[in-house]
Amino acid sequence: MLNKKSPKCSPEYSEEELAIGAVFKFLRKSKGFSQKEAASNEISIPQLSNFENGKTILVTHHFIALLRNINVDMLEFQNAYNQYLKNKDILLFSVKLSDAVMDKDVSKLNLYLNQIKAQLTLDPQNKRLKLDAIRIKSLLYFVDQSNTINKSEQTFLINYLFDLKEWGMYDIRLLGSCAQFIDVIKLAELTNHMIAPLQANIELYHIKHAVTQCLLNIINIFVEQKTFEPARRLIAYLENSDIHEYFMFDKLTLIYNKANYSYQKGDADALDVMKKCLKVLEFCGCSKTATQVSDELKKLDHHD
Question: Organism's domain of life (predicted)?
Answer without folding.
Answer: Bacteria
